[in-house]
From TrEMBL, chain A:
The keyword Iron-sulfur applies. This is 4Fe-4S ferredoxin-type domain-containing protein. Residues 223-245, 289-318 form the 4Fe-4S ferredoxin-type domain. Keywords: Iron, Iron-sulfur, Metal-binding. It comes from candidate division WOR-3 bacterium. One of its GO terms (molecular function) is metal ion binding. InterPro entries: 4Fe4S_Fe-S-bd, 4Fe4S_Fe_S_CS, Helical_ferredxn. It holds the Pfam family Fer4_8.
Automatic annotation (TrEMBL), chain B:
It comes from candidate division WOR-3 bacterium. Keywords: Iron, Iron-sulfur, Metal-binding. Gene3D superfamilies: Alpha-helical ferredoxin (1.10.1060.10). InterPro entries: 4Fe4S_Fe-S-bd (IPR017896), 4Fe4S_Fe_S_CS (IPR017900), FrhB_FdhB_C (IPR007525), Helical_ferredxn (IPR009051). This is Coenzyme F420 hydrogenase. Residues 214-235, 278-307 form the 4Fe-4S ferredoxin-type domain. GO terms for molecular function: iron-sulfur cluster binding; metal ion binding. Pfam families: Fer4_7, FrhB_FdhB_C. It comes from the Bacteria.
Length: 359, 346
């Protein structure tokens, strides 16, 4: 496999220089990238056209306050852009972007994607509360430690940048990516097997963690009672849904009063039937409903867990259910923009193994 | 003032009172905070046996009780009496929601308490000690406004419970129930109001929102991830669909491109600070300073403290205290030709 190896002193600086070259050569008109806040305490996605601002950007910060897919959705929900945008993204952000484009929430036209090898992100509160001590493995989201889709494989970006020690690996994923490289006078002629070995090592480590984590979650969530315990601290704030890059509904079913609210007498009847009910109602139902709506597109980013004020491991259970339902349909969210989401396709003859055998 | 005295700790006393109300058929259900596993939830209970599990005095507020009672009574008034135990700020928010036509008080027996404050709900997940919510630390309205019954709680040692009977409705519900009736006065710990007020002044002068300006706003709200959790947890924010989640708040890519051209860069999603300003304008006259917003913020912005401070200014301007009196009209719903001249052009 061939690409371009570039020696760098600092990873973010190295990536930024590539972006700046693409910008200076007029290959792109604007960049979407994470960017430090003026007070430096966090990062936000910035759409940048000004070169001075671009020089300050940080393509791969230690946290992911929101998914870049959500930023791109805000930009293109109502239509395509008419300038050439380079969106700099982690693999899970691009995967979410692709899913949203299938769901007609993002228009991909005129957007090129530069993806980066992702070392994982630090849990946001960990980062904000301990800004100097976050650089350790146990500060990372566990969904990141369990993520095996952190590199270029099965990722429809144009150019991917792999990350090594003191060097980055520029790998064109398609013709456009190759044009980008030649446009900035870099030819993809270096052998990348060193990088591939590093990826394989990380993949193995992540896979082991993933299997262990998934087994733990399976054990913790068997049956309704266990599931109830898992979400015991849930206060029904629905924030997991709000920060989820896939959950795109303007108004969630569970927040639509026409669907979910009943008369006082109805609540009292319900309470009488069960001797007592929680208020608000539908705590577990919300999570199950959300799961059945988006699990096939769940890219396992873990934003839901970061957004949970009660620190419930939401991302862990959603990643697990996502992975298992996706397996059923041999579907991988975000792998290919042309691969239809299984719920959008109908086959008369499928899934017989899940039919009720006792019927 | 007439009161009942129960020789038991607060939670136990309230259970006894509520059980009595439920068993005698005075109410059809009880609405109260309940510890379930390691979490908390409000519950609506009809079986007296389950009342053993309620924990109305535990120092947590998983959701605004006023908001929940609005949800319960929104479509139609209660057809059967229920007793609800809620804190003073929850009661104030309930009154605001009644004014906003989002809740109904018919058939509702309200039991409140002199409130010692609650702890941040996240503490349940992180074991973060016994510190109160910042909004509670600076709250000087911890005596309930016009509840039917008031448990004297703040500053009491908790071995004996005194429950004041404030209203005719309260008296009517208690009629014939076998409790010790005594004379008692509304009593709050000496100096509590003053110390809370002092802390309030200190906190506000540290935050200095009057000096914020755009830069200060970016400094405080810059880390916001746009999840709008504060709005959804807010007992006053009642809109089914917030303007900032609606299509009206979205911009066409062409408009955004123009903005980008003008500014050189554009934060996406847009409206991060604007959302907070918009919400502030919409809710601050009714803001009861409960602190739910701070509690649910995933990036720990002191939303509640800032909103409480801004609310104080706005409310002072109209001599309005949210939830003080049901008859007192919301300033935004009244029109006076002659007012606020000092805010006009010089």
């Amino acid at each position: 496999m061939k690409g371009k190896i570039v020696k760098v002193e600092e990873i973010n600086q190295g990536i930024k220089e590539i972006i700046l070259k693409l910008f200076d050569r007029g290959i792109i008109d604007a960049v979407l990238s994470p960017h430090p806040l003026p007070n430096g305490e966090s990062f936000a996605h910035l759409l940048i056209k000004d070169r001075g601002i671009l020089t300050q950007t940080v393509p791969l910060p230690p946290i992911m306050p929101i998914s870049g897919a959500k930023a791109l959705r805000d930009l293109t929900r109502l239509g395509k852009i008419d300038f050439r945008l380079l969106a700099v993204m982690r693999p899970c952000e691009l995967r979410a972007t692709i899913e949203l484009s299938k769901l007609n929430q993002i228009v991909l036209e005129n957007i090129s994607f530069l993806t980066l090898d992702c070392p994982g992100v630090v849990r946001i509160r960990e980062y904000l509360n301990h800004p100097n001590q976050y650089a350790r493995d146990d500060a990372l989201r566990s969904t990141c430690l369990a993520c095996v889709h952190f590199s270029f494989k099965n990722l429809p970006s144009d150019l991917h940048i792999g990350i090594g020690k003191g060097e980055i690996y520029l790998y064109p994923q398609n013709e456009k990516g190759r044009e980008f490289l030649t446009g900035i006078d870099l030819s993809p002629t270096d052998d990348l097997s060193n990088w591939l070995e590093q990826i394989a090592t990380t993949e193995k480590k992540r896979m082991a963690y993933r299997e262990k984590l998934f087994q733990e979650i399976r054990n913790k969530t068997k049956g309704l009672e266990a599931l109830d315990r898992y979400f015991e601290l849930c206060i029904n704030c629905h924030n997991c849904m709000r920060v989820c890059p896939i959950c795109y509904c303007r108004q969630c079913f569970f927040e639509n009063p026409d669907q979910t609210r009943i008369e006082a007498g109805g609540y009292l009847n319900l309470a009488r039937k069960k001797k007592g009910i929680r208020f608000p109602t539908d705590r577990i139902l919300f999570h199950l409903g959300r799961m059945s709506h988006m699990a096939l597109s769940c890219i396992g980013c873990g934003n839901c867990g970061d957004g949970c004020p009660m620190e419930i491991p939401v991302g862990e259970i959603f990643s697990l259910i996502g992975a298992e339902t996706q397996k059923m349909f041999d579907y991988q969210p975000g792998r290919d923009p042309t691969e239809p989401i299984p719920v959008l396709t109908y086959r008369e003859d499928e899934l017989h193994e899940y039919e009720d055998v006792n019927r | 003032m007439k009161a009942i005295r129960i020789n038991q700790p607060f939670n136990e006393s309230l259970r006894e009172l509520l059980r009595s109300l439920l068993e005698k058929g005075k109410v059809g259900a009880v609405f109260a905070l309940t510890r379930i596993g390691s979490g908390y939830s409000y519950t609506l209970i009809t079986d007296p046996k389950l009342l053993d599990q309620i924990t109305p005095i535990d120092p947590y507020m998983p959701v605004g009780g006023g908001k929940m009672l609005s949800r319960l009574t929104m479509i139609e008034p209660l057809t059967q009496p229920i007793a609800a135990v809620i804190r003073p700020c929850e009661l104030r928010s309930l009154y605001e929601l009644v004014k906003l036509e989002q809740a109904n008080l018919d058939n509702l027996l309200i039991i409140s308490l002199t409130c010692p404050g609650v702890r941040p709900i996240r503490g349940l997940a992180t074991d973060r000690g016994e510190t109160l919510r910042e909004c509670c630390q600076i709250c000087d309205r911890f005596i309930p406004e016009k509840s039917d019954l008031t448990l004297l709680c703040a500053g009491e040692d908790g071995n004996v419970s005194t429950i004041l009977i404030n209203t005719e409705q309260g008296e009517r519900f208690l009629e014939g129930l076998p409790f010790d009736y005594v004379e008692a006065e509304l009593k709050v710990p000496e100096g509590l109001k003053e110390s809370r007020k002092k802390k309030r002044q200190e906190t506000f002068s540290r935050l200095k929102p009057e000096d914020l300006g755009m830069e200060g706003l970016i400094n405080i709200f810059g880390r916001c991830i746009g999840c709008h959790a504060c709005g959804r947890a807010c007992p006053i924010c009642y809109c089914n669909l917030c303007y900032f989640d609606s299509e009206e708040s979205e911009s066409h890519p062409k408009e955004l491109a123009t903005d980008l051209e003008l500014k050189g860069a554009l934060r996406l999603p847009t409206n991060t600070i604007f959302y907070h300003l918009g919400r502030m304008i919409h809710v601050s006259l009714s803001c009861v300073g409960c602190g739910m917003c701070s509690d649910v913020c995933p990036v720990e912005i002191p939303v509640g403290t800032i909103f409480t401070r801004i609310a104080e200014s706005g409310q002072k301007l109209f001599d309005y205290i949210p939830g003080r009196d049901l008859e007192e009209k919301l300033p935004t719903s009244t029109f006076k030709i002659e007012e606020l001249k000092d805010l006009g052009e010089a």
